[in-house]
Amino acid sequence: MCGIIGIKSCVDISTKIIEKLKILEYRGYDSAGVSYLKDKLYCKKSVGKVDKLAKKIDCHFDIGIAHTRWATHGKPTLHNCHPFLSSDKNVAIVHNGIISNYIQIKNELSNKNVVFDSETDSEVIAKLFDNKTLTIDSIRKVCQKLNGSYAIVGLTATGILFGAKKGSPLYFAQNKDEFLIASDIACFEDADSFFTLQDGEYVIVDKKVQFFDDEKIIEKISTQLDFDKYKYAKTHENFMIQEILQTPTLVKRYLLNQQKLNINKYKNVYLFGCGSAYHCAKIGEHYLRQLNKNCKAIVASEIGEEKCDFDNALCIFLSQSGETIDTLNALSLCKGKATTVALINNEFSTLARECDIIVPINAQKEFSVASTKAVTMMIVAMLCWIKEQSYNDYKKVFNINENVLKELANKLYNNESLFFVGKGIDHIINCEGALKVKEIAYINANAYLSGELKHGPLALIDEKAYVIVSCSQKRFVDKTKSTICEIKARGGKIVLFTPFLSLIEALDNEDYSVLLPNITSELVPISALYSYQLLSYYICKNRGLNPDFPRNLAKSVTVE
Ligand code: AGP
Protein backbone atom coordinates (compact mmCIF):
# COMPACT_ATOMS: atom_id res chain seq x y z
CA MET A 1 0.00 0.00 0.00
CA CYS A 2 1.14 3.53 -0.74
CA GLY A 3 2.83 4.28 -4.02
CA ILE A 4 6.22 5.98 -4.14
CA ILE A 5 8.27 7.35 -7.00
CA GLY A 6 11.39 9.42 -7.60
CA ILE A 7 12.61 10.83 -10.91
CA LYS A 8 15.91 12.50 -11.76
CA SER A 9 16.13 13.96 -15.24
CA CYS A 10 17.67 16.83 -17.16
CA VAL A 11 14.32 18.08 -18.44
CA ASP A 12 11.15 19.25 -16.70
CA ILE A 13 9.38 16.34 -14.94
CA SER A 14 6.66 18.29 -13.13
CA THR A 15 3.91 16.79 -15.31
CA LYS A 16 5.50 13.37 -15.67
CA ILE A 17 5.87 12.74 -11.95
CA ILE A 18 2.16 13.46 -11.46
CA GLU A 19 1.22 11.16 -14.36
CA LYS A 20 3.34 8.39 -12.86
CA LEU A 21 1.89 9.02 -9.42
CA LYS A 22 -1.57 8.52 -10.92
CA ILE A 23 -0.45 5.09 -12.12
CA LEU A 24 0.43 4.29 -8.51
CA GLU A 25 -2.82 5.66 -7.15
CA TYR A 26 -4.40 2.19 -6.98
CA ARG A 27 -1.97 1.54 -4.07
CA GLY A 28 -3.66 4.19 -1.91
CA TYR A 29 -5.50 7.42 -2.48
CA ASP A 30 -6.06 9.07 0.91
CA SER A 31 -3.57 11.86 0.21
CA ALA A 32 -0.70 12.70 -2.09
CA GLY A 33 2.47 14.77 -1.99
CA VAL A 34 5.54 15.72 -3.92
CA SER A 35 8.94 17.13 -3.02
CA TYR A 36 11.17 18.74 -5.62
CA LEU A 37 14.45 20.58 -5.79
CA LYS A 38 14.82 24.16 -7.00
CA ASP A 39 17.04 26.45 -4.92
CA LYS A 40 16.08 24.20 -1.98
CA LEU A 41 13.72 21.29 -1.31
CA TYR A 42 10.01 22.19 -1.58
CA CYS A 43 7.01 20.08 -0.57
CA LYS A 44 3.46 20.26 -1.93
CA LYS A 45 0.78 18.12 -0.33
CA SER A 46 -2.95 17.58 -0.54
CA VAL A 47 -5.60 15.38 1.02
CA GLY A 48 -7.47 13.18 -1.45
CA LYS A 49 -6.51 12.00 -4.88
CA VAL A 50 -3.54 12.95 -7.07
CA ASP A 51 -5.65 15.29 -9.24
CA LYS A 52 -5.94 17.65 -6.27
CA LEU A 53 -2.19 17.65 -5.79
CA ALA A 54 -1.66 18.34 -9.52
CA LYS A 55 -3.48 21.67 -9.13
CA LYS A 56 -0.90 22.78 -6.55
CA ILE A 57 2.14 22.25 -8.80
CA ASP A 58 2.92 25.62 -10.33
CA CYS A 59 6.57 25.39 -11.39
CA HIS A 60 8.97 23.27 -13.44
CA PHE A 61 11.58 20.98 -11.90
CA ASP A 62 13.80 18.15 -13.11
CA ILE A 63 14.20 16.10 -9.92
CA GLY A 64 11.54 15.09 -7.43
CA ILE A 65 9.94 12.39 -5.31
CA ALA A 66 6.22 11.74 -4.79
CA HIS A 67 3.83 9.64 -2.72
CA THR A 68 0.23 8.51 -2.79
CA ARG A 69 -0.95 7.32 0.62
CA TRP A 70 -3.08 4.60 2.15
CA ALA A 71 -3.24 5.73 5.77
CA THR A 72 -2.05 3.32 8.44
CA HIS A 73 -0.50 5.49 11.17
CA GLY A 74 -2.33 8.79 11.49
CA LYS A 75 -5.46 10.01 9.73
CA PRO A 76 -5.39 11.15 6.09
CA THR A 77 -4.72 14.79 7.00
CA LEU A 78 -2.38 17.32 5.42
CA HIS A 79 0.23 17.10 8.16
CA ASN A 80 0.36 13.30 7.77
CA CYS A 81 1.01 13.54 4.00
CA HIS A 82 4.38 12.45 2.66
CA PRO A 83 7.08 13.56 1.76
CA PHE A 84 8.74 14.28 5.10
CA LEU A 85 11.81 16.45 5.57
CA SER A 86 14.82 15.94 7.80
CA SER A 87 15.21 18.51 10.58
CA ASP A 88 17.81 20.48 8.57
CA LYS A 89 15.49 20.27 5.50
CA ASN A 90 18.31 18.76 3.44
CA VAL A 91 16.68 15.36 2.87
CA ALA A 92 13.11 14.54 1.82
CA ILE A 93 11.76 10.99 1.89
CA VAL A 94 8.66 9.05 0.86
CA HIS A 95 7.96 5.64 2.39
CA ASN A 96 5.83 2.58 1.75
CA GLY A 97 5.60 0.01 4.55
CA ILE A 98 5.39 0.11 8.32
CA ILE A 99 8.14 1.04 10.75
CA SER A 100 7.21 -1.09 13.74
CA ASN A 101 9.66 0.55 16.18
CA TYR A 102 8.76 4.12 15.23
CA ILE A 103 7.49 5.05 18.70
CA GLN A 104 10.82 4.10 20.26
CA ILE A 105 12.75 6.06 17.61
CA LYS A 106 10.40 9.01 17.96
CA ASN A 107 10.93 9.06 21.73
CA GLU A 108 14.70 8.88 21.35
CA LEU A 109 14.74 11.71 18.81
CA SER A 110 12.25 13.83 20.78
CA ASN A 111 14.60 13.58 23.75
CA LYS A 112 17.21 15.17 21.49
CA ASN A 113 14.75 18.01 20.75
CA VAL A 114 13.81 16.79 17.28
CA VAL A 115 10.36 18.16 16.43
CA PHE A 116 7.78 15.98 14.65
CA ASP A 117 4.97 17.40 12.53
CA SER A 118 2.96 14.23 11.91
CA GLU A 119 1.52 11.16 13.63
CA THR A 120 3.04 8.84 11.03
CA ASP A 121 5.63 6.13 11.47
CA SER A 122 7.33 7.32 8.26
CA GLU A 123 8.44 10.71 9.54
CA VAL A 124 11.04 9.09 11.82
CA ILE A 125 12.95 8.00 8.71
CA ALA A 126 13.35 11.59 7.55
CA LYS A 127 14.27 12.78 11.02
CA LEU A 128 16.97 10.10 11.35
CA PHE A 129 18.88 11.77 8.50
CA ASP A 130 21.05 14.19 10.43
CA ASN A 131 24.32 14.19 8.42
CA LYS A 132 25.22 17.22 6.36
CA THR A 133 26.40 15.03 3.47
CA LEU A 134 24.52 11.98 2.32
CA THR A 135 26.57 8.83 1.70
CA ILE A 136 25.69 5.16 1.38
CA ASP A 137 26.86 4.77 4.97
CA SER A 138 24.49 7.43 6.26
CA ILE A 139 21.56 5.76 4.41
CA ARG A 140 22.58 2.35 5.74
CA LYS A 141 22.88 3.78 9.27
CA VAL A 142 19.30 5.08 9.08
CA CYS A 143 17.92 1.83 7.63
CA GLN A 144 19.69 -0.30 10.23
CA LYS A 145 17.69 1.51 12.92
CA LEU A 146 14.36 0.62 11.28
CA ASN A 147 12.33 -2.46 12.15
CA GLY A 148 9.38 -3.48 10.00
CA SER A 149 9.10 -3.05 6.27
CA TYR A 150 10.05 -0.25 3.94
CA ALA A 151 10.58 0.94 0.45
CA ILE A 152 12.08 4.43 0.69
CA VAL A 153 12.79 6.96 -2.01
CA GLY A 154 14.75 10.01 -0.93
CA LEU A 155 15.99 13.26 -2.39
CA THR A 156 18.68 15.58 -1.07
CA ALA A 157 19.10 19.32 -1.39
CA THR A 158 22.30 18.53 -3.31
CA GLY A 159 20.35 16.66 -6.00
CA ILE A 160 20.97 13.04 -5.01
CA LEU A 161 18.12 10.58 -5.56
CA PHE A 162 18.22 7.32 -3.59
CA GLY A 163 16.19 4.21 -2.82
CA ALA A 164 16.28 1.55 -0.10
CA LYS A 165 14.21 -1.59 0.24
CA LYS A 166 13.22 -4.16 2.85
CA GLY A 167 9.91 -5.99 2.54
CA SER A 168 8.05 -3.56 0.27
CA PRO A 169 8.56 -3.58 -3.51
CA LEU A 170 10.95 -1.13 -5.20
CA TYR A 171 12.27 -1.01 -8.76
CA PHE A 172 14.79 1.14 -10.59
CA ALA A 173 14.87 2.01 -14.28
CA GLN A 174 16.93 4.16 -16.59
CA ASN A 175 15.78 5.75 -19.77
CA LYS A 176 18.59 7.64 -21.56
CA ASP A 177 19.37 10.50 -19.15
CA GLU A 178 16.41 9.88 -16.89
CA PHE A 179 16.38 7.74 -13.73
CA LEU A 180 13.28 6.42 -12.00
CA ILE A 181 12.72 4.59 -8.73
CA ALA A 182 9.16 3.38 -8.06
CA SER A 183 6.90 0.83 -6.37
CA ASP A 184 5.50 -0.58 -9.58
CA ILE A 185 6.79 -1.73 -12.96
CA ALA A 186 3.82 0.02 -14.57
CA CYS A 187 5.71 3.32 -14.10
CA PHE A 188 8.52 2.30 -16.44
CA GLU A 189 6.76 1.72 -19.72
CA ASP A 190 9.55 3.10 -21.89
CA ALA A 191 12.68 2.33 -19.85
CA ASP A 192 15.90 1.12 -21.52
CA SER A 193 17.09 -0.84 -18.52
CA PHE A 194 15.21 -2.14 -15.53
CA PHE A 195 16.32 -3.53 -12.12
CA THR A 196 14.44 -5.14 -9.23
CA LEU A 197 15.85 -4.12 -5.86
CA GLN A 198 16.12 -6.97 -3.34
CA ASP A 199 15.73 -6.64 0.41
CA GLY A 200 18.79 -4.93 1.90
CA GLU A 201 19.74 -3.27 -1.37
CA TYR A 202 20.16 0.43 -2.11
CA VAL A 203 20.43 2.54 -5.23
CA ILE A 204 22.02 5.99 -5.32
CA VAL A 205 21.71 8.27 -8.35
CA ASP A 206 24.27 11.05 -8.09
CA LYS A 207 26.79 11.76 -10.85
CA LYS A 208 26.45 8.07 -11.70
CA VAL A 209 24.15 5.21 -10.63
CA GLN A 210 25.45 2.83 -7.97
CA PHE A 211 23.86 -0.17 -6.28
CA PHE A 212 24.85 -1.35 -2.80
CA ASP A 213 23.94 -4.04 -0.33
CA ASP A 214 24.41 -3.80 3.43
CA GLU A 215 28.19 -4.12 3.08
CA LYS A 216 29.51 -3.25 -0.34
CA ILE A 217 28.92 -1.86 -3.78
CA ILE A 218 27.21 -4.46 -6.02
CA GLU A 219 26.80 -5.13 -9.73
CA LYS A 220 23.21 -5.60 -10.85
CA ILE A 221 22.13 -7.03 -14.16
CA SER A 222 19.31 -5.32 -15.99
CA THR A 223 16.21 -7.45 -16.60
CA GLN A 224 14.57 -7.59 -20.02
CA LEU A 225 10.93 -6.69 -19.63
CA ASP A 226 8.03 -6.88 -22.02
CA PHE A 227 6.61 -3.49 -20.99
CA ASP A 228 3.51 -4.02 -23.11
CA LYS A 229 2.38 -6.45 -20.43
CA TYR A 230 2.49 -3.68 -17.84
CA LYS A 231 1.20 -0.80 -19.94
CA TYR A 232 -1.32 1.51 -18.41
CA ALA A 233 -4.08 2.43 -20.84
CA LYS A 234 -7.64 3.18 -19.89
CA THR A 235 -10.04 2.29 -22.68
CA HIS A 236 -13.30 2.26 -20.71
CA GLU A 237 -15.00 4.58 -18.26
CA ASN A 238 -13.48 2.66 -15.35
CA PHE A 239 -10.75 0.07 -14.98
CA MET A 240 -13.12 -2.32 -13.27
CA ILE A 241 -15.44 -2.73 -16.26
CA GLN A 242 -12.47 -2.73 -18.64
CA GLU A 243 -10.88 -5.55 -16.66
CA ILE A 244 -14.06 -7.61 -16.34
CA LEU A 245 -14.65 -7.39 -20.08
CA GLN A 246 -11.04 -8.42 -20.84
CA THR A 247 -11.61 -11.79 -19.19
CA PRO A 248 -12.89 -13.81 -22.19
CA THR A 249 -9.85 -12.80 -24.30
CA LEU A 250 -7.45 -13.57 -21.47
CA VAL A 251 -9.01 -16.99 -20.93
CA LYS A 252 -8.77 -17.77 -24.62
CA ARG A 253 -5.08 -16.79 -24.66
CA TYR A 254 -4.31 -18.73 -21.48
CA LEU A 255 -5.89 -21.92 -22.77
CA LEU A 256 -3.49 -21.89 -25.72
CA ASN A 257 -0.62 -22.16 -23.26
CA GLN A 258 -1.86 -24.04 -20.22
CA GLN A 259 0.57 -24.66 -17.36
CA LYS A 260 0.28 -28.05 -15.67
CA LEU A 261 0.97 -28.78 -12.02
CA ASN A 262 1.18 -32.34 -10.74
CA ILE A 263 -0.98 -32.29 -7.62
CA ASN A 264 -1.14 -36.10 -7.43
CA LYS A 265 2.42 -36.64 -6.33
CA TYR A 266 1.96 -34.75 -3.06
CA LYS A 267 0.46 -36.19 0.09
CA ASN A 268 -0.95 -32.87 1.30
CA VAL A 269 -1.94 -29.77 -0.64
CA TYR A 270 -2.57 -26.40 1.04
CA LEU A 271 -3.86 -23.28 -0.70
CA PHE A 272 -3.34 -19.86 0.89
CA GLY A 273 -4.80 -16.48 -0.01
CA CYS A 274 -6.56 -13.38 1.34
CA GLY A 275 -9.88 -11.82 0.35
CA SER A 276 -10.79 -12.75 -3.21
CA ALA A 277 -7.63 -14.81 -3.54
CA TYR A 278 -8.82 -16.86 -0.55
CA HIS A 279 -12.15 -17.44 -2.30
CA CYS A 280 -10.12 -18.70 -5.28
CA ALA A 281 -8.22 -20.97 -2.88
CA LYS A 282 -11.57 -22.37 -1.65
CA ILE A 283 -12.67 -22.96 -5.24
CA GLY A 284 -9.30 -24.62 -5.88
CA GLU A 285 -9.84 -26.83 -2.83
CA HIS A 286 -13.24 -27.81 -4.20
CA TYR A 287 -11.90 -28.74 -7.64
CA LEU A 288 -8.50 -30.16 -6.68
CA ARG A 289 -10.08 -32.59 -4.23
CA GLN A 290 -10.99 -34.56 -7.33
CA LEU A 291 -7.26 -35.34 -7.53
CA ASN A 292 -6.09 -35.14 -3.94
CA LYS A 293 -8.38 -35.62 -0.98
CA ASN A 294 -5.93 -33.95 1.40
CA CYS A 295 -6.44 -30.53 -0.07
CA LYS A 296 -7.21 -27.56 2.15
CA ALA A 297 -7.69 -23.82 1.65
CA ILE A 298 -6.50 -21.59 4.48
CA VAL A 299 -6.90 -17.84 4.98
CA ALA A 300 -3.25 -16.76 4.86
CA SER A 301 -3.46 -14.67 8.04
CA GLU A 302 -4.84 -17.70 9.94
CA ILE A 303 -1.95 -20.05 9.21
CA GLY A 304 -0.86 -19.84 12.85
CA GLU A 305 -4.22 -21.28 13.91
CA GLU A 306 -3.93 -24.30 11.57
CA LYS A 307 -1.99 -27.51 11.95
CA CYS A 308 -0.42 -28.15 8.55
CA ASP A 309 1.13 -31.54 7.84
CA PHE A 310 4.19 -30.61 5.78
CA ASP A 311 5.10 -34.23 5.03
CA ASN A 312 5.43 -34.35 1.20
CA ALA A 313 3.30 -31.21 1.03
CA LEU A 314 2.59 -28.71 -1.72
CA CYS A 315 1.75 -25.18 -0.56
CA ILE A 316 0.09 -22.98 -3.17
CA PHE A 317 -0.01 -19.22 -2.60
CA LEU A 318 -2.62 -17.31 -4.56
CA SER A 319 -2.15 -13.59 -5.04
CA GLN A 320 -2.85 -11.16 -7.82
CA SER A 321 -0.19 -8.70 -6.63
CA GLY A 322 2.25 -11.18 -5.13
CA GLU A 323 2.92 -8.56 -2.44
CA THR A 324 0.15 -9.26 0.11
CA ILE A 325 1.94 -9.32 3.45
CA ASP A 326 -0.29 -11.98 5.09
CA THR A 327 0.30 -14.31 2.14
CA LEU A 328 4.05 -13.62 2.26
CA ASN A 329 4.06 -14.33 6.00
CA ALA A 330 2.30 -17.66 5.37
CA LEU A 331 4.91 -18.45 2.73
CA SER A 332 7.75 -17.76 5.15
CA LEU A 333 6.25 -20.33 7.56
CA CYS A 334 6.05 -22.98 4.80
CA LYS A 335 9.37 -22.33 3.07
CA GLY A 336 11.89 -25.13 3.42
CA LYS A 337 9.20 -27.50 4.73
CA ALA A 338 7.11 -27.93 1.58
CA THR A 339 7.26 -27.32 -2.15
CA THR A 340 5.90 -23.82 -2.70
CA VAL A 341 3.94 -22.53 -5.68
CA ALA A 342 3.01 -18.94 -6.51
CA LEU A 343 -0.22 -18.64 -8.49
CA ILE A 344 0.19 -14.98 -9.36
CA ASN A 345 -0.35 -12.15 -11.78
CA ASN A 346 2.90 -10.35 -11.02
CA GLU A 347 6.01 -12.25 -12.03
CA PHE A 348 8.23 -9.58 -10.49
CA SER A 349 6.67 -9.81 -7.07
CA THR A 350 8.19 -11.01 -3.83
CA LEU A 351 5.95 -14.08 -3.90
CA ALA A 352 7.23 -14.98 -7.37
CA ARG A 353 10.83 -14.59 -6.23
CA GLU A 354 10.41 -16.61 -3.06
CA CYS A 355 8.40 -19.62 -4.30
CA ASP A 356 9.88 -22.79 -5.85
CA ILE A 357 7.40 -22.85 -8.74
CA ILE A 358 5.69 -19.92 -10.47
CA VAL A 359 2.37 -20.26 -12.25
CA PRO A 360 1.59 -16.87 -13.84
CA ILE A 361 -2.07 -16.31 -14.65
CA ASN A 362 -1.15 -13.81 -17.40
CA ALA A 363 -4.11 -11.54 -16.68
CA GLN A 364 -2.14 -8.36 -17.54
CA LYS A 365 -2.07 -5.52 -15.06
CA GLU A 366 -5.14 -5.25 -12.84
CA PHE A 367 -5.64 -1.68 -11.60
CA SER A 368 -9.11 -1.71 -10.13
CA VAL A 369 -8.96 -2.36 -6.39
CA ALA A 370 -11.75 -4.90 -6.83
CA SER A 371 -10.14 -7.97 -8.32
CA THR A 372 -12.14 -9.45 -11.20
CA LYS A 373 -10.24 -10.84 -14.19
CA ALA A 374 -7.44 -12.08 -11.92
CA VAL A 375 -9.95 -14.02 -9.81
CA THR A 376 -11.39 -15.74 -12.88
CA MET A 377 -7.95 -16.45 -14.31
CA MET A 378 -6.77 -18.08 -11.07
CA ILE A 379 -9.75 -20.43 -11.21
CA VAL A 380 -9.14 -21.23 -14.89
CA ALA A 381 -5.44 -21.90 -14.15
CA MET A 382 -6.36 -24.36 -11.39
CA LEU A 383 -8.88 -26.14 -13.61
CA CYS A 384 -6.01 -26.69 -16.07
CA TRP A 385 -4.24 -28.72 -13.35
CA ILE A 386 -7.13 -31.16 -13.20
CA LYS A 387 -7.35 -31.78 -16.92
CA GLU A 388 -6.49 -30.08 -20.19
CA GLN A 389 -9.14 -27.39 -20.74
CA SER A 390 -10.64 -26.90 -24.16
CA TYR A 391 -11.54 -23.43 -25.39
CA ASN A 392 -14.62 -24.95 -27.02
CA ASP A 393 -16.03 -25.58 -23.55
CA TYR A 394 -15.39 -21.98 -22.55
CA LYS A 395 -16.97 -20.34 -25.58
CA LYS A 396 -20.34 -19.85 -23.90
CA VAL A 397 -19.10 -19.17 -20.34
CA PHE A 398 -19.22 -15.40 -20.76
CA ASN A 399 -22.48 -15.30 -22.72
CA ILE A 400 -24.39 -13.30 -20.16
CA ASN A 401 -27.10 -10.79 -20.98
CA GLU A 402 -25.58 -7.58 -19.59
CA ASN A 403 -28.85 -5.68 -20.00
CA VAL A 404 -30.57 -8.04 -17.58
CA LEU A 405 -27.82 -7.33 -15.07
CA LYS A 406 -28.15 -3.58 -15.58
CA GLU A 407 -31.92 -3.76 -14.95
CA LEU A 408 -31.29 -5.87 -11.89
CA ALA A 409 -28.77 -3.35 -10.60
CA ASN A 410 -31.48 -0.69 -10.95
CA LYS A 411 -33.69 -2.71 -8.63
CA LEU A 412 -31.03 -3.59 -6.09
CA TYR A 413 -28.85 -0.52 -5.71
CA ASN A 414 -30.96 1.18 -3.05
CA ASN A 415 -30.90 -1.75 -0.64
CA GLU A 416 -28.96 -1.51 2.56
CA SER A 417 -28.33 -5.24 2.62
CA LEU A 418 -28.24 -8.10 0.16
CA PHE A 419 -28.32 -11.83 0.76
CA PHE A 420 -26.55 -14.48 -1.30
CA VAL A 421 -27.73 -18.06 -0.76
CA GLY A 422 -26.41 -21.31 -2.26
CA LYS A 423 -24.77 -24.67 -1.65
CA GLY A 424 -21.29 -26.13 -2.17
CA ILE A 425 -19.30 -24.39 -4.91
CA ASP A 426 -22.18 -21.90 -5.37
CA HIS A 427 -21.69 -20.75 -1.79
CA ILE A 428 -18.01 -20.02 -2.44
CA ILE A 429 -18.83 -18.03 -5.57
CA ASN A 430 -21.54 -16.24 -3.57
CA CYS A 431 -18.96 -15.29 -0.92
CA GLU A 432 -16.94 -13.65 -3.71
CA GLY A 433 -20.06 -11.95 -5.13
CA ALA A 434 -20.95 -10.59 -1.69
CA LEU A 435 -17.39 -9.34 -1.18
CA LYS A 436 -17.51 -7.47 -4.50
CA VAL A 437 -20.83 -5.79 -3.61
CA LYS A 438 -19.55 -4.82 -0.14
CA GLU A 439 -16.24 -3.59 -1.45
CA ILE A 440 -17.40 -1.25 -4.20
CA ALA A 441 -21.08 -0.54 -3.47
CA TYR A 442 -20.86 -0.39 0.37
CA ILE A 443 -23.94 -2.59 0.72
CA ASN A 444 -23.94 -5.07 3.58
CA ALA A 445 -23.96 -8.17 1.40
CA ASN A 446 -23.49 -11.59 2.97
CA ALA A 447 -23.43 -15.15 1.68
CA TYR A 448 -25.22 -17.96 3.53
CA LEU A 449 -25.28 -21.70 2.93
CA SER A 450 -28.84 -22.57 1.93
CA GLY A 451 -28.97 -25.39 4.48
CA GLU A 452 -28.01 -22.95 7.22
CA LEU A 453 -30.77 -20.42 6.48
CA LYS A 454 -33.26 -21.91 8.89
CA HIS A 455 -30.63 -22.12 11.62
CA GLY A 456 -30.58 -18.36 12.02
CA PRO A 457 -30.24 -16.06 8.98
CA LEU A 458 -33.89 -16.61 7.95
CA ALA A 459 -34.79 -14.25 10.81
CA LEU A 460 -33.39 -11.43 8.66
CA ILE A 461 -35.72 -12.08 5.73
CA ASP A 462 -38.81 -9.90 5.34
CA GLU A 463 -40.74 -8.18 2.48
CA LYS A 464 -37.84 -5.78 1.91
CA ALA A 465 -35.25 -8.52 1.44
CA TYR A 466 -33.75 -9.37 -1.95
CA VAL A 467 -32.09 -12.76 -1.91
CA ILE A 468 -29.67 -13.78 -4.64
CA VAL A 469 -30.05 -17.55 -4.94
CA SER A 470 -27.63 -19.44 -7.16
CA CYS A 471 -27.84 -22.98 -8.43
CA SER A 472 -25.13 -24.10 -10.87
CA GLN A 473 -25.33 -27.87 -10.28
CA LYS A 474 -28.15 -30.13 -11.39
CA ARG A 475 -27.95 -32.13 -8.16
CA PHE A 476 -28.84 -28.95 -6.20
CA VAL A 477 -32.08 -28.22 -8.12
CA ASP A 478 -34.55 -29.85 -5.70
CA LYS A 479 -32.88 -28.40 -2.61
CA THR A 480 -32.84 -24.96 -4.29
CA LYS A 481 -36.61 -25.21 -4.88
CA SER A 482 -37.11 -25.74 -1.15
CA THR A 483 -34.77 -22.84 -0.32
CA ILE A 484 -36.74 -20.54 -2.63
CA CYS A 485 -40.00 -21.59 -0.94
CA GLU A 486 -38.57 -20.91 2.51
CA ILE A 487 -37.49 -17.42 1.49
CA LYS A 488 -40.71 -16.57 -0.32
CA ALA A 489 -42.82 -17.74 2.62
CA ARG A 490 -41.14 -14.94 4.63
CA GLY A 491 -41.84 -12.32 1.95
CA GLY A 492 -38.35 -12.19 0.45
CA LYS A 493 -37.86 -11.57 -3.27
CA ILE A 494 -35.70 -13.98 -5.23
CA VAL A 495 -32.98 -13.10 -7.71
CA LEU A 496 -32.06 -16.45 -9.22
CA PHE A 497 -28.83 -17.21 -11.10
CA THR A 498 -29.05 -20.60 -12.80
CA PRO A 499 -28.85 -22.43 -16.13
CA PHE A 500 -31.91 -24.57 -15.15
CA LEU A 501 -35.14 -23.36 -16.76
CA SER A 502 -37.26 -25.57 -14.50
CA LEU A 503 -36.12 -23.48 -11.53
CA ILE A 504 -36.74 -20.18 -13.30
CA GLU A 505 -40.23 -21.27 -14.34
CA ALA A 506 -41.12 -21.86 -10.70
CA LEU A 507 -40.57 -18.17 -9.81
CA ASP A 508 -43.30 -15.49 -9.38
CA ASN A 509 -43.67 -12.19 -11.22
CA GLU A 510 -42.05 -10.29 -8.38
CA ASP A 511 -38.90 -12.41 -8.63
CA TYR A 512 -35.96 -11.98 -11.00
CA SER A 513 -33.70 -14.36 -12.82
CA VAL A 514 -30.45 -14.39 -14.75
CA LEU A 515 -30.12 -17.31 -17.11
CA LEU A 516 -26.61 -18.75 -16.96
CA PRO A 517 -25.37 -20.61 -20.05
CA ASN A 518 -26.00 -24.29 -20.47
CA ILE A 519 -22.39 -25.54 -20.17
CA THR A 520 -20.43 -28.21 -18.27
CA SER A 521 -21.19 -28.18 -14.56
CA GLU A 522 -17.62 -27.25 -13.57
CA LEU A 523 -17.77 -24.08 -15.70
CA VAL A 524 -21.21 -22.72 -14.67
CA PRO A 525 -19.73 -21.26 -11.45
CA ILE A 526 -17.36 -19.17 -13.59
CA SER A 527 -20.39 -17.75 -15.45
CA ALA A 528 -22.02 -16.93 -12.12
CA LEU A 529 -18.83 -15.24 -10.92
CA TYR A 530 -18.59 -13.16 -14.10
CA SER A 531 -22.26 -12.15 -13.72
CA TYR A 532 -21.69 -11.10 -10.10
CA GLN A 533 -18.70 -9.00 -11.11
CA LEU A 534 -20.82 -7.16 -13.69
CA LEU A 535 -23.78 -6.87 -11.32
CA SER A 536 -21.67 -5.39 -8.52
CA TYR A 537 -20.16 -2.94 -11.02
CA TYR A 538 -23.59 -1.72 -12.17
CA ILE A 539 -24.89 -1.49 -8.59
CA CYS A 540 -21.85 0.62 -7.71
CA LYS A 541 -22.41 2.89 -10.73
CA ASN A 542 -26.08 3.31 -9.81
CA ARG A 543 -25.01 4.45 -6.37
CA GLY A 544 -22.80 7.09 -7.98
CA LEU A 545 -19.57 5.57 -6.66
CA ASN A 546 -16.19 5.11 -8.31
CA PRO A 547 -15.58 1.34 -8.53
CA ASP A 548 -11.83 1.72 -9.06
CA PHE A 549 -11.15 3.46 -5.76
CA PRO A 550 -13.38 2.10 -2.98
CA ARG A 551 -13.10 3.92 0.34
CA ASN A 552 -10.65 2.67 2.97
CA LEU A 553 -9.09 0.09 0.63
CA ALA A 554 -5.99 -0.26 -1.53
CA LYS A 555 -5.04 -2.71 -4.22
CA SER A 556 -1.96 -4.14 -2.66
CA VAL A 557 -2.26 -4.89 1.08
CA THR A 558 1.34 -4.78 2.22
CA VAL A 559 0.62 -4.24 5.92
CA GLU A 560 -0.60 -6.78 8.48
C1 AGP B 1 -10.42 -8.15 -4.06
O1 AGP B 1 -11.47 -7.53 -4.72
C2 AGP B 1 -9.93 -7.43 -2.89
N1 AGP B 1 -9.55 -6.11 -3.20
C3 AGP B 1 -8.99 -8.16 -1.97
O2 AGP B 1 -9.77 -9.05 -1.24
C4 AGP B 1 -7.79 -8.93 -2.59
O3 AGP B 1 -8.23 -10.02 -3.31
C5 AGP B 1 -6.85 -9.36 -1.45
O4 AGP B 1 -6.38 -8.24 -0.80
C6 AGP B 1 -5.70 -10.21 -1.95
O5 AGP B 1 -4.89 -9.51 -2.83
P1 AGP B 1 -3.80 -10.25 -3.68
O6 AGP B 1 -4.50 -11.12 -4.68
O7 AGP B 1 -3.02 -9.16 -4.34
O8 AGP B 1 -2.97 -11.06 -2.74
Compile the SSE list and pairings.
Elements: E1 3-8, H1 14-23, E2 31-37, E3 41-47, H2 50-54, E4 63-69, E5 84-85, E6 91-99, H3 102-111, H4 123-128, H5 136-144, E7 148-156, E8 161-166, E9 171-175, E10 178-182, E11 193-196, E12 201-205, E13 209-212, E14 217-218, H6 239-255, E15 268-273, H7 275-288, E16 295-299, E17 313-319, H8 325-334, E18 339-344, H9 350-354, E19 357-360, H10 373-386, H11 391-394, H12 402-412, E20 417-422, H13 424-441, E21 444-449, E22 466-470, H14 477-489, E23 493-498, H15 501-505, E24 512-515, H16 524-542
Parallel strand pairs: 15-16, 15-17, 17-18, 18-19, 20-21, 20-22, 22-23, 23-24
Antiparallel strand pairs: 1-4, 1-10, 2-3, 2-4, 5-6, 6-7, 7-8, 8-12, 9-10, 9-11, 12-13, 13-14
Helix pairs in contact: 6-10, 7-10, 7-13, 12-16, 13-16
This protein binds 2-deoxy-2-amino glucitol-6-phosphate.
End-to-end separation? 11 Å
Mean pLDDT: 94
Assign the CATH topology of the largest domain: Glutamine Phosphoribosylpyrophosphate, subunit 1, domain 1
The total tally of domains equals 3
Helix content: 25-40%
Radius of gyration: 25 Å
Strands ordered across the widest β-sheet: 3-2-4-1-10-9-11
The general outline is globular
Bound molecules: 2-deoxy-2-amino glucitol-6-phosphate
Superfamily (CATH H level) name of the largest domain:
Aminohydrolase, N-terminal nucleophile (Ntn) domain
Low-confidence stretches: none
Which structural class is indicated by helix and strand composition?
A: alpha/beta
Sheet-strand content, in percent, reads: 15-25%
| Major sheet characteristics | 7 strands, antiparallel
Under CATH at level 1, the class of the largest domain stands as: Alpha Beta
Strands, count: 24
The total of helices stands at 16
CATH architecture classification name of the largest domain: 4-Layer Sandwich
